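Help needed: design a sequence for this.
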């Protein structure tokens, strides 16, 4: 016997109505309207069934880890297994940093809820992971540094094909969601291909004849008010400068007010 759930669709439920029957020890019954239902927390962390591709990826790695954390990959797989809210995990040794930090492994966790881990959750998870370590390795959990892809989509379509503008927009939106799931673009170490992105949009509706996109990167910062600070925005790779200064005094970090 097993239970089938609605997965993500059941997340966020917080309104319930009591439809049962209340009967006391004297066998007296009371109407359902006499009961008040108090919901302490809405439903959360529900997810769709794990895909075959995900099982193929994680099952052999979890088996090879044998409940011990030796490599960075072991920490990634074990974290996904013990922390249900982990949507994606990346781990790396401190020796890969500049300057290197020995004796530490760093974990970055993208949560299913989209929220950052609080200090207590990080501490509890680090303590759990330490029990899997084969040596005196400290686990450091840090927040992800998100870069967002902001596409502007231009579409030409045949007006006599049978689909109106609203239908085409709806099909494109659904195609982008499906493309994101298939490519796992929201996971760490994912690569964005504008060609496959445009191809997914082109195939979303038979009336579309041409697709072009304008891609920009978006990153949020949270500046302190009423103070002058320097913010260094890291993109992970160099950005082409179309108008470099003549004196070569360009700086990656600019002062913001």
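Sure. Designed sequence:
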């Amino acid at each position: 016997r097993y239970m089938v759930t609605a997965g993500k669709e059941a997340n966020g439920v917080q309104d319930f109505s009591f439809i049962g029957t209340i009967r006391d020890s004297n066998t007296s019954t009371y109407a359902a309207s006499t009961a008040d239902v108090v919901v302490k927390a809405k439903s959360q962390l529900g997810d769709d069934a794990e895909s075959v591709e995900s099982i193929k990826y994680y099952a052999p790695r979890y088996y090879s880890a044998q409940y011990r954390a030796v490599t960075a990959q072991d920490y990634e797989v074990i974290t996904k297994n013990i922390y249900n809210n982990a949507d994606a995990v990346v781990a790396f040794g401190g020796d890969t940093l500049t300057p290197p930090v020995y004796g530490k492994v760093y974990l970055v966790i993208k949560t299913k809820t989209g929220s950052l881990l609080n200090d207590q959750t990080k501490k509890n998870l680090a303590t759990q992971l330490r029990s899997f370590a084969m040596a005196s390795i400290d686990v450091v959990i840090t927040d992800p540094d998100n870069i967002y892809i902001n596409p502007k989509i231009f579409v030409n379509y045949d007006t006599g094909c049978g689909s109106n503008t609203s239908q085409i927009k709806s099909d494109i939106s659904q195609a982008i969601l499906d493309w994101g799931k298939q490519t796992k673009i929201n996971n760490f170490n994912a690569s964005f291909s504008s060609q496959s992105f445009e191809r997914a949009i082109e195939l979303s509706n038979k009336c579309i004849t041409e697709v072009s996109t304008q891609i920009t990167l978006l990153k949020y910062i949270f500046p302190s008010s009423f103070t002058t600070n320097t913010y260094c925005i890291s993109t992970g790779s160099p950005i082409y400068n179309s108008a470099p200064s003549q004196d070569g005094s360009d700086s990656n970090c600019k002062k913001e007010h």
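The mean pLDDT is 84.
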